[in-house]
Amino acid sequence: MHIPMAKVLAHHAQPGATAIACGDEVTPGSIVAILLPNGIEFFVATFATWKLGATPMPLSHRLPEIEREDMLKLARPTLVVGLDARSTGAWTRIPADFHPTGAGDAPLPRAEPKQPWKAIGSGGSTGRPKLIVAGRPAVVDPAQPQYTILPGDIVLVPGPMYHQGPFIFSTGGLFVGGKVVVMPHFDPEETLALIERHHVTWTYFVPTMTHRIWRLDEDVRNRFDLSSLRIVMSTGAPWAPWLKQEWIRWMGPEKILEGYGGTEEQGGLLITGLEALAHPGSVGKAHDDLRVLDEDGNEVAAGTLGELYFQAPADEQHRYIGADDHDRDGWRSYGDLGHIGEDGYVYLSDRRTDMIVSGGANIYPAEVEGALEAHPIVRSAVVIGLPDDDLGQRVHAIVDIAEDRFVSDDDLQSHLREHTASFKIPRTFELVHQPLRDDAGKVRRAALRDQRLVANPASQKQS
Q1: Which of 13, 53, 96, 351 could form a disulfide linkage to 17, CB 3.0–4.6 angstroms apart?
Q2: How far apart are CA 340 and CA 48, in angstroms?
Q3: Long-range pairs for 322-331 at CB < 8 Å and ≥24 separation?
């Protein structure tokens, strides 16, 4: 039985729950932009938006004004919740500390929940904003699992709500009547403490979070009782095989899941810890709704690199605002490269736009980054291509370490020689002392590259 998402809290709640209204400006079918930090207010605004028959569009409240205004111009929202009064944009707005006056139970216009259930902004990696509007309407069956979340699960979501993963997993927990524990911001030790305190059964991390938790001292990791966990889900970026193996050993393979997909939700893959032991590095078994195509749109043989395309049901096709689809006769791509192995499992290489071509060789940053992050001193790493007169592009690694630590180029190169082919080893290294990815595991490669070209353009032509 499917019901409107707007009614799912009342479906699960005790008698006496109060309906939420947020003004008369919103009409069925419109978009409401929500610029609120993680917290209960975020969910109040989201469910109020569904209540009014509109589509919620979460955005980071920390976006620079230019970037925020570009996204709002694309979306043209009827209402913006949480927009700072100092903003120059001419948007109808409600401040973050807004509290309605009058009758909160006043009847609202009846509207069929045909509107898209979410709209997510993107474009940080390319520099060009786009809006991904879901094809699925705002209805849900509260008796059915959501993203492997079962009715009654206690769900911990440590990431920012304006990203796809935290948004769908937190609301998914509410849709099935679970308890959702939301962190204002991610902290590795506090994450483990919350799992123990709330007896969390299902949690979601991006690989960056799993890496930061793993880098805690072993006695800190073992201090907390994590036995309540049923599922540890990782998605949002490739999970380095070495790190995933460590988590499998720590948690047990039956608790580990890795998901591959995208904000568009046009298709995806899922692999269990038990499968990962037999097929290390894979993101799941291929199925009939997946194809691997070459540049001409021809399906390639097993073991051959190509671009991954999925086919979503016709009534669940997303649409873009501000971008074009990678569409081939109804098959759509996230832009990722990979292959299907002889074992029938899928192995990713990298996003086509991130690939570095150096001396005629294709180098995929994610592979080199995973190898760098296996070094005990490295907290995170980002690999980019910089112009080179001889090679076309040279591989440059930005490496994040603690301020009181040091690692030499020779040490990093020696470490990498044990983990990857010599032609993939970066020619240059740069040490930094701040996170390179946000709490959702996202990195702005284009911005990092542009910063280095502007800062020292002459040095970018060295071989």
Answers
A1: 13
A2: 44
A3: 322/74, 322/123, 322/128, 322/129, 322/130, 322/131, 323/123, 323/128, 323/130, 328/293, 328/297, 331/291, 331/293
Q: Output the CA angle 218-219-224, nearest 5 degrees.
A: 105
- Over residues 11-55, the pLDDT tens digits come to 776 544 332 333 345 777 799 999 999 999 999 999 999 998 999
Rounded to whole angstroms, how far apart are CA atoms 207 and 385?
Answer: 22
| Mean of pLDDT values over 81-104 | 77
Q: How far apart are CA 190 and CA 206, in angstroms?
A: 16
User: What domains, with CATH codes, occur in the chain?
Assistant: 3-140 (3.40.50.980), 355-461 (3.30.300.30)
Q: Encoding tokens for residue 213? A: 């938790």
Host H or E run for residue 361: strand 361-363
* pLDDT of amino acid 384: 93
Residue 295 or 114, more confident: 295
The predicted pLDDT at position 105 comes to 55
Count CA atoms within 13 Å of residue 354 on its CB side.
24
Q: Name the nearest CA neighbour of 189 among 161, 206, 209.
A: 209
Run of H or E including 292: strand 290-293
Asked whether the CA dihedral 70, 71, 74, 78 is positive or negative, the reply is negative
Q: Residues 420-442: what's their mean pLDDT? A: 88
- Which residue, 233, 266, 261, is CA-closest to 247? 233
Distance between CA 426 and CA 424 in Å, rounded?
6
Residue 225 has a pLDDT of 98
- Amino acid 326 reads H
Mean of pLDDT over the chain? 86
Amino acid code (one letter) for 192: L
Stronger pLDDT, 84 or 255, i.e. the higher one: 255
**Distance between CA 184 and CA 80 in Å, rounded?**
21
| pTM exceeds cut of 0.90 | no
Nearest residue to 191 via CA among 144, 238, 147, 223: 223
300 closest CA partner among 314, 286, 279? 286
Q: Report the alpha-carbon distance of residue 267 to residue 306 in Å, rounded.
A: 17
Name the residue among 58, 69, 61, 56 with its Cα closest to residue 129: 69
